[in-house]
C-alpha cells in the first residue's frame, strides 16, 4: 500500500473520480454518471477540474492511496485562513477495514494542524460518522430539500434588489465569508465563478449576501441576515428551469429559514448526512457546499 500526494495530472484526477463514484455508488446506490446526459457530463468535468484545482492550491492536503498501482482511497483537504475543510474522503469497499482510511485521514488532518476551525459535509455512512466523531468533530444532522418549484407561490420579491455577480464582487464575497465562518473562500470563488451557472448578489444598507446556483441546485449561500438569505434563496429557486427539479442540501436546524422557503415553494424535505464542525457552530444564515464548505 502506498500513500502519496495527489499530482496535478489528468490521470490522478480520473483516479479520484473513479474511486469517488464507486464508493458513493456502494454507499447509497447512486447510479454511475452517464456521460451522454448533459447534467452528468458537466458534473464530471467540474469534479475533475476541482481535483486539479485543489492539487494546485493545497498539494500538502491532497492524498491518494494505491494498491498494486490502482487508486483505492482519496482524501482531499484545503486550508483557508485558519479553517480546515475536507471536501472528499472515500475508500473503496474492497480496501476498507485495512487502515487505509485512517492513514489518509491522518495525512489530511495533519495539513490542518494549527487551524482553529474545521468543516466537512459527511455522508450517512456509520463508519464515516465514527471516524469524524473520533477526530473531534460535532455532527449536526442535515436535511435536503428537493422537488419542482411551485411557481404559483413565487410572490412579489419585495424591496431587496438581487443582481448577477462576477469577479468584481470577490471582496464582497470574502467579507461575507469571514463574518459567517471566520475565513474567506479565497481562490475557490474564482473557481466557482467559472464552473457554476450563476452568482446572485444582494448588497444593501440592511445587509449583504450571495448565492451560487447551477441548474436546479443551490450550491452555496451566505448572507449577513436571514432577510437577505430568504430573498436570495427565493430568487435562486425562481430561476431554476421549469423542467428541472430544485435541490438544496446540508441544511441544519439552524437554517430553518431555508426550510420554510423550500416548503412554502412546494419542495419536500428528507434527512441526509451530517455537517461536521470542529471549533465552531454552524454558520447562519448559510447553506454550505460539500466541495468547498
Describe this structure in words.
The chain has 293 residues and is of the alpha+beta class. The chain has two domains: 2-115, Aminopeptidase (3-Layer(aba) Sandwich); 145-287, Aminopeptidase. Helix content is 35%, strand content 30%. The protein has eight helices and 13 strands. The protein has helices spanning 10-28, 38-57, 100-111, 126-134, 170-181, 188-195, 226-238, 256-264, and strands at 2-5, 62-67, 70-80, 83-91, 117-122, 138-147, 163-164, 198-204, 207-214, 217-223, 246-251, 268-278, 286-287. Strands 1, 2, 3, 4, 5, 6, 7, 8, 9, 10, 11, 12 and 13 form a 13-stranded mixed β-sheet that branches. Strand 8 and strand 9 (207-214) form a beta hairpin. Mean pLDDT is 91; it is low at 29-38.
Task: Jot down its keywords.
single chain; 293 residues; alpha+beta; Aminopeptidase; 13-stranded mixed beta sheet; 8 helices; 13 strands; 35% helix; 30% strand
Amino acid at each position: 500500500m502506498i500513500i502519496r500526494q495527489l499530482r496535478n495530472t489528468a490521470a490522478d484526477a480520473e483516479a479520484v473520480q473513479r474511486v469517488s463514484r464507486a464508493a458513493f455508488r456502494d454507499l447509497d446506490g447512486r447510479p454511475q454518471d452517464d456521460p451522454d446526459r448533459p447534467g452528468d457530463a458537466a458534473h464530471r468535468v467540474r469534479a475533475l477540474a476541482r481535483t486539479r484545482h485543489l492539487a494546485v492550491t493545497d498539494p500538502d492536503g491532497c492524498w491518494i492511496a494505491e494498491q498494486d498501482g490502482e487508486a483505492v482511497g482519496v482524501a482531499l483537504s484545503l486550508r483557508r485562513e485558519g479553517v480546515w475543510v475536507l471536501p472528499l474522503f472515500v475508500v473503496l469497499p474492497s480496501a476498507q477495514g485495512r487502515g487505509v482510511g485512517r492513514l489518509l485521514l491522518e495525512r489530511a488532518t495533519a495539513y490542518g494542524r494549527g487551524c482553529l476551525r474545521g468543516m466537512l459535509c459527511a455522508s450517512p455512512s456509520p463508519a464515516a460518522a465514527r471516524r469524524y466523531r473520533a477526530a473531534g468533530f460535532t455532527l449536526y444532522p442535515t436535511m435536503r430539500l428537493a422537488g419542482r418549484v411551485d411557481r404559483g407561490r413565487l410572490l412579489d420579491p419585495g424591496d431587496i434588489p438581487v443582481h448577477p455577480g462576477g469577479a468584481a464582487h470577490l471582496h464582497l464575497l470574502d467579507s461575507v465569508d469571514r463574518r459567517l465562518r471566520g475565513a474567506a473562500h479565497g481562490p475557490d470563488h474564482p473557481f466557482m465563478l467559472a464552473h457554476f451557472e450563476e452568482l446572485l448578489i444582494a448588497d444593501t444598507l440592511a445587509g449583504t449576501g450571495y448565492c451560487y446556483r447551477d441548474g436546479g441546485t443551490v450550491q452555496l449561500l451566505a448572507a449577513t441576515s436571514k432577510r437577505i438569505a430568504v430573498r436570495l434563496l427565493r430568487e435562486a429557486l425562481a430561476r431554476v428551469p421549469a423542467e428541472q427539479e430544485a435541490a438544496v442540501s446540508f441544511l441544519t436546524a439552524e437554517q430553518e429559514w431555508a426550510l420554510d422557503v423550500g416548503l412554502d415553494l412546494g419542495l419536500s424535505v428528507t434527512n441526509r448526512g451530517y455537517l461536521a464542525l470542529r471549533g465552531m457552530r454552524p454558520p447562519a444564515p448559510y447553506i454550505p457546499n460539500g466541495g468547498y464548505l
